[in-house]
Amino acid sequence: MLYNLLSPLADDFIFFNLFRYLTFRTGAAIMTALVICFVIGPGMIRWLKSKQAEGQPIRADGPETHFKKAGTPTMGGLMELISVAISTLLWADLVNPFIWYALLVMAGFGAIGFADDYLKLTKKNTKGLSGKLKLLIQFAIGLVATFGIMSSLPDAIATEITIPFFKHLFINLSWFFIPWALVVMIGASNAVNLTDGLDGLAIVPVAIVAACFGLFSYIVGNAVFANYLQIPFIPGTGELAILCGALVGAAMGFLWFNAPPAMVFMGDTGSLAMGGVLGAIALMTKHELVLAIVGGLFVLETVSVIVQVASFKLTGKRVFRMAPLHHHFEKKGWSEPTVVIRFWIIAMILALVGLATLKLR
Questions:
Q1: Is residue 342 assigned to a domain?
Q2: Does any domain span residue 314?
Q3: Three-class secondary structure of residue 263 per DSSP
């Protein structure tokens, strides 16, 4: 909003030229989202506690150490969604369609998570929305976003995917791009959701991935940098750096309250929304496969669940002591902070590998 209102004044007042710079607005978005989280966090936690007498239901078959978390409120993802939305609307170019489709996915998937969390609380169990219904609504929202993204991308690459580590290697999926896009958004959403099982575990990798895609967005939306690095130039995607910056700021603000021992849990409200919007940004910047590298921790957690379920159904035996993977290490005796910090380290290493794809081609 500020860009649309103030950047036209730059010709008369040199100060307003700042609002034309993506770097300035991205930094401002980070700080705005961070401050909003700090301001609304304590009040929201008190409000959530007043509405949730028993807090988030704890899995009966989970690690024994989790039972001491009983009474901790969930739906903390609301403060992230509010912070990201306000910060993005304040600093981004509101004429840019990529911003609106990304916000659509974030808000839509967040609403699904909110309904899921609400049902878990009212029913006092860990089931919430049925898996089929959740996927159906995600599919509907993702479908609308996919058509919007395709119409906003340049025609020449709208249905193509790029292959990392190779120069000018593209695969045109044609109409198969639609199911591909749905898999990316829904898969990323549920992968973050599966990872969100320990205090601070998911939110830091979300911030790391968002920071990486802020850089990708900036480069892909800049003709000079894109041509130099031999990646597709997509006009308008630079504005997504502001949304990514808001995600980083909101994640750091939320971590203040989610750090062990957590005062509030993100819940499906936050995890489904954060994963979904990262998937949408990856599609817009044509870095879907790089998302699987940068967000490799989320992939690893998801694969552990798939392997566990498949093994048990086929052989009656479990590969891990408990899935997702972070619970396996808890069952082996690792303390929660040890699991969390080591997984953060893995997330940072994978982010560096993903960033290397910009140059290693």
A1: no
A2: no
A3: coil
Domain encompassing residue 216: 2-153+175-287
Q: What is the CA radius of gyration of the chain?
A: 20
Nearest to 187 by CA among 276, 271, 117: 276
- Indicate the number of domains in the chain: 1
pTM of structure:
0.93
Q: Which of 105, 27, 61 has the alpha carbon at shortest distance from 279?
A: 105
Q: Tens of pLDDT along 258-314?
A: 998 889 999 999 999 999 999 999 999 999 999 999 999 999 999 999 999 999 999
| Helical ranges in the chain per DSSP H | 2-6, 22-51, 77-91, 97-123, 131-152, 177-195, 203-220, 223-229, 240-258, 267-284, 288-294, 296-315, 325-331, 336-356
Cα angle 44, 338, 303; round to 5: 85
Sign of the CA dihedral running 301, 249, 85, 216: negative
Residue with tokens 């566990």: 308
* Dihedral sign of CA atoms 268, 273, 279, 282 in order: negative
Whether the pLDDT of residue 70 is over 80: the answer is no
DSSP letter for 162, please: E
Alpha-carbon distance of 191 to 272, in angstroms, equals 8
Cα–Cα dist 303/319, whole Å = 12
With contact defined as beta carbons under 8 Å apart, do 92 and 239 qualify?
Answer: yes
- Judge whether 123 lies within some domain: yes
| 330/295 Cα distance (integer angstroms) | 22
How far is it, in rounded angstroms, from Cα 270 to Cα 254? 10
Whether 271 is covered by a domain: the verdict is yes
In the numeric block, the tokens 């988030």 are attached to 56
**pLDDT tens digits, residue range 118-143?**
888 877 666 778 889 999 999 999 99
Q: Which residues contact 228 (CB under 8 A, 6 or more apart)?
A: none
